Amino acid sequence: MPKIIVVGSSNTDMVIQSARIPKPGETILGGSFFMNPGGKGANQAVAAARLGGEVHFICKVGQDVFGDMARQQFIQEGIHTEFVISDADLPSGVALINVDAQGENSITVASGANGTLSMSDIEKADALFEAGDVLLIQLETPLQTVWETIQMAHKKGLKVILNPAPAAEIPDEIYPYIFALTPNETETELLTGVEVHSLAKAQEAASILLNKGLSHLLITMGSQGAYYQSA
Q1: CA distances from 101 to 30, 139, 223 (A)
Q2: How many C-alpha atoms does 209 have within 13 Å on its Cβ side?
Q3: What is the mean pLDDT of residues 33-47?
């Protein structure tokens, strides 16, 4: 069984569904409310665990009810939580989501403790990295921590899989440390300047990214499926 380390974010999504998204200053009654566990890192960790991986999640939560709920949910999913860190000063991350009748949404994220995940936190898991096989990581925690974690994992022999979301530029010197990159069309356009609206354009973008030192690239393209290319 592969040992998978996930470094990233944990949020609680607080969702209100209503007929339409309110305008600035407007109050709308009659919505329905529910909460979901979320965060791009937590989503990766749960998905990997459900697929049979031995998953160790490194993240930061607050010392609050949302942090307690998240930790319990990870345990229920079979995820190792020895490096789910409690921040005494900041709350857990939350996302406030308005969804209208057509499925359009408006999202505000308060990163909270996610925003303080640092290399000193990551380095406490050094022995875990020594024994790991794969690093899954995204861009919902401080970017400097992400780049340094990727380099650390690569040097210890882990295969690094980066989901570059939310979209952000990746320094050129980081690409050779990435085993696989999994951007969507929007993220690919940001990284390459190529508007990916067809498989031909995906191939054009792939050439740019693979020339930066990637080993594997998988561009997700919504209803068109996905485009894969290796170096």
Answers
A1: 12, 30, 21
A2: 33
A3: 95
